[in-house]
Amino acid sequence: MTRVIHTGDTHIGYAQYHSPVRRQDFLDAFEAVIDDAIDGDVDAVVHAGDLFHDRRPELDDLMGTIAVLRRLDDAGIPFLAVVGNHEATRGGQWLDLFERLGLATRLGDEPTIVGDTAFYGLDHVPVSRRDDLDYAFADHDADHAALVAHGLFEPFGYADWDTAEVLAESDVAFDAMLLGDNHTPDVAEVADTWVTYPGSTERASASEREGRGYNLVTFDGDDAGDDRVDIRRRALDTRPFVFVEVDLREGEGAARVRERVRQHDLDDAVVLVDVTGDGDPVTPAAIEEFATDRGALIARVTDRREVETDAEVEVSFADPEDAVRERIEEMSLSEAALDVDEAVRADAVPDSNVRQTVKGRIEERIDDLDGFGRRAETGDDEGESEPVGGEEAADEATDADEAIGDEAIGDEATGDEATDADAATDEPNTESPATDGQVSMEDYL
After folding, report:
1. Which of 88, 191, 339, 419 could form a disulfide with 423 if both were Cys (CB 3.0 to 4.6 A apart)?
2. What mean pLDDT do residues 405-422 have?
3. Has residue 244 got a pLDDT over 90?
4. Phi/psi zone of residue 71: left (φ > 0), alpha (ψ -120 to 50 degrees), beta?
5. In the prediction, which pLDDT does 352 show?
6. Phi, psi torsion values for 387, nearest 5 degrees
7. Span 190-205, mean pLDDT?
8. Which pLDDT value is given to residue 402?
9. pLDDT number for residue 89
10. Out of 6, 47, 86, 183, which one is annotated catalytic?
């Protein structure tokens, strides 16, 4: 029997609402999970990605995380993890650093055996790079097997991974898939395999209204010798969020909103007020000050009547890079365009050098014709040569132009709460000699 805590999406370092207190909350929630692991004497803690909210975590966040992982290591409990999209970089990962310090194991296509269970890992992979995955995992001799992965898998919301296809093409028969990325906890069974999300450990957006927590997963076999996976939800005591919804009738205004806010316990809470209806105008700043004066840590008021449109509009500024990442993945850009996009939005390139950097990278691609997928020049019997590239090269160049055109979006999405889109272009370059068109898991992990 093997008992593990399955967690993920801890987003350490997220200064939500630009609050240093909220930033500490995310580290505290992760520490609470580790406390439960030590107290419960589990066999391992399995983290399904997005340990950090940003690929450039602050020193305090790194030191705090290392201190927590040292406590887990002192208790003799291994920390097994994969890399999520928020924290992914083009080169070495923070998880690699923790592994070199002896505080973590980065899961991959080779099994990591804990008790009688083999754990494998699949880091976040952008949609544009998934077609080449071959799901070639090494064999194991354990009684059970689990795949830990970061992504949006079916049959859950916003899915862009075909779970049944992953399970069918994998060399290993998995008893469970322990997932991260979707912040809503859930569990389902796909092709006789249990698939589950533990949800985030702190509320990373206003849409995450339910309590936060993690999964306690037990791998065991019954008396008949059949494999059994038991998944149980465990709650975390996190920062309270108070959601106040006020539907103003004609003639009602700020006084009615204050009355509704006053009905709640606001002590040290994040208070989110939604105003709808046909009442009088409301000044959000005045209501926010009213709530903080009564003990709220943070108060935010959204007057949804300010948006006048016949269509339903949903806008979130919790993580602007999220929108950029999703748009880039939808565009299915070429490697050349992704390279340009990375240059435009990477913090490593100063704003004053972006244009020159992009120009240089494009020139390099042109010098190496294969970079744009161009055909070599070929002459006919008359000694004439045909144009190089044709429509294929034009399409690639258009992709690059679109990436450059997104520069304005990227500039707006580089605040404290941005990183998600960076991961879409910050994956390692996995070009390899053409063989059968397949790329091994090792190239991605």
Report:
1. 88
2. 37
3. yes
4. alpha
5. 59
6. -60, 145
7. 96
8. 39
9. 86
10. 86
Residue 163, amino acid? T
Rounded Cα distance between 112 and 124, Å, is 19
Whole-prediction pTM value? 0.70
pLDDT at 166: 95
Is the sign of the CA dihedral 420, 346, 134, 111 positive or negative?
negative
SS3 292: helix
Element (H, E) at 326: helix 320-331
- pLDDT of 310 > 90? The answer is no
- CA dist 243 and 233 (Å) reads 24
φ and ψ at residue 425, rounded to 5 degrees: -115, 0
Amino acid in the structure at residue 140 = H
Q: Give the amino acid at 132.
A: D
Question: Does residue 374 have a pLDDT over 60?
Answer: no
% of the chain exceeding 70 in pLDDT? 68
49, 237, 275, 417 from 272: Cα distances, Å: 28, 19, 10, 18
- 90 vs 191, which has greater pLDDT? 191
Helices 254-262/284-293 angle, 10° precision: 30
Q: How far apart are the first and last CA of the chain?
A: 28
Contact 248, 257 (CB under 8 A): yes
Check residue 170 and give its pLDDT: 95
Q: How many other CB atoms sit within 10 Å of the CB of residue 408?
A: 9
Report the amino acid identity of residue 174. F
In the prediction, which pLDDT does 322 show? Answer: 59
- Name residue 272's amino acid: L
How far apart are the C-alpha atoms of 27 and 346, rounded to whole Å? 26
Whole-number Å distance between alpha carbons of 373 and 368: 9
Provide the b/e sequence for 355-381 (b: ≥16 CB within 10 Å).
eebbeebbeebeeeeebbebeeeeeee
- From 326, 281, 323, select the one nearest 303 (Cα to Cα): 281
